[in-house]
Every structure is written in C-alpha cells, then in structure tokens.
Structure to design on (346 residues):
DNA sequence: GTTTCATTGTTAGGTTGTCTAACTATTAAT
DNA sequence: ATTAATAGTTAGACAACCTAACAATGAAAC
C-alpha cells in the first residue's frame, strides 16, 4: 500500500498562492495545480543544488545523463545528437562538450563510420559522479511510484499526459 | 467523469527512454516517471516559447507573474521581495526590474513608508500581455483537474507531494 | 541628537552560456 | 569531377547572472 499521504484530502498544508480559481472554483482543483507548481519549483531547486555540487550548468547535466543512458545501450551519440536533444546549436554543443571533457566527465572519440562526426562518451568518472549524486533521489522517486496501486498509477499517468497536452497544444492562440 | 485517457493502462505510446527500472522493475512505474519527465520537458519548452513571444527571460516572466499576483491582492512588492522569491541577488533584481520597466511591463513607484525601498507594480500592459499569453493554457489545465473525481485529485495530490518530498529531502547523501 | 549599524537599491566589472557567421573536413549526389 | 549537404570548430557579440563597492535611508545605542 502506498505510504504517500495526501496533503489535500488528508493533511493540513494548503498549497498556497499563485493559482486562484477562474470563477467560484473548486478549491481542491486549485490545490492540485499549486502542488504541481511546487513540484516544479522543487525540481528547479534540486537542479540548482546539483549544478552547484558538480560545478556544471543546467544543460551540461542533462547532456551527461543522455550520455550515460546511451552508454547503457551501447549507443553512440554525436555532438549533433546532443545539440538536437538539448535544443542548442552545434556551436553551443561543441563548447558544452568542451566543458564536459575539461571536467573529465566525457571523452571525444572518433566516430566509427563517419569521419566528420565525433562520438561523445561518458567517462567512468562522469558515470560515478552522476549516479552518486542522483541515485538516492531516483530511488526515492521510484519507490513512491512503485508503492502505488495500478489504478493510482493510471490516474497519475492520465493526469500527467493531460497536463503535457495542455502545455503542448500551443499556448498563445 | 474525466475525459483524460490513460496512456498507460489505456493507450499505446510507452513513455520512452531515460528512466529504466532499478532491477527487474514494474514497467508501468517507470512509465509514470517518464511521463513526469515529459511533463517537465513540455513545461520547459512552453516557457521557451513564451520567452520568445514576449522577448523576456525566464525569471522575468516569473517575476511578472508574482507582480500580477500581488496586484490582485493589493500587495506591494519590493525589489528585495522579488530577489528573494527568484533566488537572485539584489543587483540582479535591480537590472531585472530595469528590463521589465524598459519593456513597459512594470513600473517603479515610491514605497509607502520606507524611502529606501522601491515598490514595483505591474502595468496594465504587463497584465494584459501575460493573461493573453497564458490564459488558454491555464484554462486547459484547470479544466483537466476540475473534471477529475475527488479521489483522483487526492491520488494526484499525494503523488505530487511525495515527489516533491523526494526531491527536497536533500538529494546527495 | 549624534553616532553607529543594518537594510535597500544602484553601479561597475567579470563570468558563463548561449547565439550567428565564417571556416574546415568529410560525405553524398549529379 | 564538381557541387551540395552535413559535422564540427572558432571568433565575436550579447544577455543575465554574479561579487564588490557604494549611496541613501532607517533603526538603535548612547
């Protein structure tokens, strides 16, 4: 059974500020949106801490995680791929990889089969550092979800999908 | 009943990449985490679009939203307050307000009762612009949550609270 | 009331991370 | 063989943050 305690139906704290219902408005709906915002803020803060701890920028960390994920799949990532996934230019990706290499988190290796390209690999150090930094957090998150019932997971999944669609469906006009 | 369709129990698309279960691992739990990540990415992308549309930086928009929220409460925000909420220095807040003023989104007014402080107010133009830009999106999000059952809202609220705790409980170590 | 310390905001100068534009090296197409 | 497209690098500009030093006001001590 999920150990998660609802802070809406159950607990006290009312997610404060920011959202305020369009009209008369069901308070608990607003609460949910405020909680979503809170989660976002917590994640942003966490990224800030990690950034501080590892002395890296925002995208550098995301890039490193892509590299690690690729490594587990024995896949090869080029700078181009990083640029695409991070939505930055090739030029920026180039200096991003410069930074990763300078810090010892990644390595440039010749790309097999296309001599224009440079394959980028995470180093063991990068692997270690990221895992150590994020492992516990990931474990906690996984555990929370794992302890939920299938129905609850379906509800949450539907919620997240719908929220994502709300954001994706082109916001202004 | 909620019109939201679960993409886990229901639909096809399997939230791809990134998360991969610690061990053997219940796939749908991983799906939920991937959906959470997707939501994050969608929100980041949305902010990017808004930023582009309005020609402002990330924090500028958040600041403007704080100002608008304060306005609806007839509250007075000082630059200090903005700096605190945005986690930037007073110096940065100063130039942030410079930018808002330059773009016509905010106004510096003498603070009633403390001549050191400068109160910052959103202008009507700032109000209009933000509302027009974000209104539809907010409405869509609100609608989704409003159409959920109380039980579903409680489940989602518990999930978000637990995820936030997972992030907040100090990540490394 | 004057001296002293704390608070708020500004300015100057530096760093970082992005961008565009111009260039090289390789690959693919005609 | 020439031409066009792709991958990466470099140089230079810009935006937004930072720290440090400063001015002005407020509060507290004496």
């Amino acid at each position: 059974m999920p150990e998660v305690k609802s802070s809406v139906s159950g607990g006290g704290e009312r997610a404060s500020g920011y959202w305020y219902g369009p009209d008369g408005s069901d308070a608990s709906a607003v609460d949910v949106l405020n909680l979503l915002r809170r989660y976002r803020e917590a994640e942003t803060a966490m990224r800030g801490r990690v950034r501080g701890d590892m002395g890296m920028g925002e995208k550098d960390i995301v890039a490193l995680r892509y590299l690690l994920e690729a490594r587990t799949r024995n896949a090869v990532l080029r700078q181009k791929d990083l640029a695409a996934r991070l939505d930055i230019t090739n030029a920026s990706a180039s200096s991003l990889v410069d930074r990763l290499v300078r810090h010892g988190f990644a390595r440039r290796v010749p790309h097999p089969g296309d001599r224009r390209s440079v394959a980028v690999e995470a180093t063991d150090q990068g692997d270690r550092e990221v895992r150590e930094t994020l492992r516990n957090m990931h474990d906690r998150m996984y555990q929370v979800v794992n302890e939920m019932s299938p129905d609850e997971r379906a509800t949450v999944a539907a919620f997240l999908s719908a929220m994502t669609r709300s954001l994706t469906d082109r916001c202004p006009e």
In short: Residues 78-80, 90-91, 93-95, 111, 114, 116-118 of chain B lie near DNA strand C (CB under 10 Å from a C1'). The longest strand of chain B covers residues 106-110.
